[in-house]
Structure formats: C-alpha cells, structure tokens
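Training component of the fellowship. As part of building independent skills, the fellow (R.M.) carried out the full modelling exercise for a liganded target. The chosen ligand was guanosine-5'-monophosphate. The inputs are recorded below so that the supervisory panel can assess the work.
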Amino acid sequence: MMAVNIFQKIIDREIKADIVHEDSECLAFRDVNPQAPVHILIIPRRVIRTHADIGPADRELLGHMHLVAADMARKLGLVEGYRLVINCGHAAGQTVPHLHMHLLGGRDLSWPPG
Ligand code: 5GP
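Fellow's submitted model of the complex:
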C-alpha cells in the first residue's frame, strides 16, 4: 500500500496546518517553512503526484487552483506582485508527492531561481 503523504494528512486533519482557504476541490494553507513573508501552498484534495501526471480531466481543477491563488494574493495584500511555483520531480526539488502550487510574496523575489 502506498504511504499516505503529509498533505493528505492535512486534508484529513490528522496533522494541523494554518488553512487559509478550503473548498470542495482544493485547500490552501501556510507553508511550515516559509521562504517569503507570504508563503501559501495550494493543493488539490484529489491526489495527483506531480505536475507531470496531470491530464485533460484536471483542466477545471487546475484553472480553479489558479483562481484561488489570485484570490489569495488579493486577500493577502500582494499588490506589488507574487510568484507561483510548482516543483515537479526530484531534480526540481519536489519533496511531497502531492501536486502543490507555492504562492510567494511580500518581498522582492530574485530571478533566476536556484
Ligand atoms: P516542494 O519542495 O515539494 O515543492 O514543497 C513542499 C513544501 O511543503 C515545502 O515548502 C515544505 O516546507 C512544506 N511542508 C512540508 N511538510 C509540511 C507540513 O507538514 N505542513 C506545512 N504547512 N507545510 C509543509
């Protein structure tokens, strides 16, 4: 049996998180190790392991996650700008096998990323 990933435990309320948004499709909560003054993770309820695993059936869900990200950015006052990041696979630094979008803001962000 596949091990339950940490984000599934947050969805199931087995471990605590600072949840800032929740609906029937996705959850948004503060990253436990923030890399910027605002660092939110937006995750689907349904497990999709990586961005490379998405398919046409996920079209609505992915669009919805973007709308949630824009809404969160507005609500959290990121008027100067923000960055959305999806790490896909170990070479990109993905550590949790459950698709997640990072919403980062509240400071100037350098480019290119590491
Ligand atoms: P990745 O490196 O996979 O793109 O991002 C995983 C993110 O999840 C990291 O930024 C890490 O700090 C965050 N994270 C890992 N475990 C937990 C947890 O239990 N709670 C919260 N809120 N964030 C977590």
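The panel noted the following from the submitted structure. The chain has a mean pLDDT of 96. The longest strand covers residues 38-44.
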